[in-house]
């Protein structure tokens, strides 16, 4: 009966295939031929749509559908071709965008490389201040303006061009030239910023950091409140960042050599910046006067006292002592022994500086074990 139809054009879902039709309900026996394939509905009561009253009407319906389907298929094919075209266009645009992105990335990398090369070839340039600016800023280097006095030099607080600055008079021209040479290596957010210099009197002009040095905050000098554990951990991270910058310099690593809380300054937002780095190298050279070791001894790597050789590991040792000081608040001379004993006895909690707040104990224990 359906031999003249191309059966590949009509597809049925498995759920649509049913048992043979009941001839007594829908069709007469004369209308059913041998081997017919016909649509079946079990009962007119269960039908959700109109039941075909005859096979001929069913045939007509199929014929009508076959006349419509090719047109619909053409629409589908056209839509599929349009989708494919848009996909090809999208893929092409994506490929072009990736090529452009790669080109911009290469240009950026080249620009960064050229900038680094220029910075290496052209050291940082400092402003050259006339001595009159310094004399006026410090009231002729009056003791009233003096805020520090170390082996490195005297430090004065002053104002130049309406900006508060720190002015350091170096002890000697040799020290001055050494520090200038190191500062020319580049800037870092956690290294005190040098604004300029006055070669006439071997003076350096630095940014002013109003919160003083870290040592005063550890011992709560001048009535300053204890630092919170959040600020202490922030400072530890900042010191690590500064040391990483110094130690990664090429062709030779820069070593601070005198890393102590008094050489770590704090700005108004409690951001820490190290200063006086690289100076101890000069002190340890033959022919130069030796620095006072009493205050430095707890922070000095033991091997340094026998070999006199400063390495990046010398700074790492000093950093460890500073971390333990921030963690416990104990004096640096006894801190390593005390912390080691506490770790063995599982009593570190008794050493933690509670004035800093509720330290994360697990992290504190891990840090102490690593650095003690």
From TrEMBL:
<dbReference type="InterPro" id="IPR008266">
    <property type="entry name" value="Tyr_kinase_AS"/>
</dbReference>
<feature type="coiled-coil region">
    <location>
        <begin position="69"/>
        <end position="121"/>
    </location>
</feature>
<dbReference type="InterPro" id="IPR024729">
    <property type="entry name" value="USP7_ICP0-binding_dom"/>
</dbReference>
<dbReference type="GO" id="GO:0004672">
    <property type="term" value="F:protein kinase activity"/>
</dbReference>
<dbReference type="Pfam" id="PF00069">
    <property type="entry name" value="Pkinase"/>
</dbReference>
<keyword id="KW-0175">Coiled coil</keyword>
<keyword id="KW-0833">Ubl conjugation pathway</keyword>
<protein>
    <recommendedName>
        <fullName>RING-type E3 ubiquitin transferase</fullName>
        <ecNumber>2.3.2.27</ecNumber>
    </recommendedName>
</protein>
<dbReference type="InterPro" id="IPR051348">
    <property type="entry name" value="U-box_ubiquitin_ligases"/>
</dbReference>
<dbReference type="GO" id="GO:0005524">
    <property type="term" value="F:ATP binding"/>
</dbReference>
<dbReference type="InterPro" id="IPR011009">
    <property type="entry name" value="Kinase-like_dom_sf"/>
</dbReference>
<dbReference type="InterPro" id="IPR000719">
    <property type="entry name" value="Prot_kinase_dom"/>
</dbReference>
<dbReference type="GO" id="GO:0061630">
    <property type="term" value="F:ubiquitin protein ligase activity"/>
</dbReference>
<feature type="domain" description="Protein kinase">
    <location>
        <begin position="141"/>
        <end position="372"/>
    </location>
</feature>
<dbReference type="Pfam" id="PF12436">
    <property type="entry name" value="USP7_ICP0_bdg"/>
</dbReference>
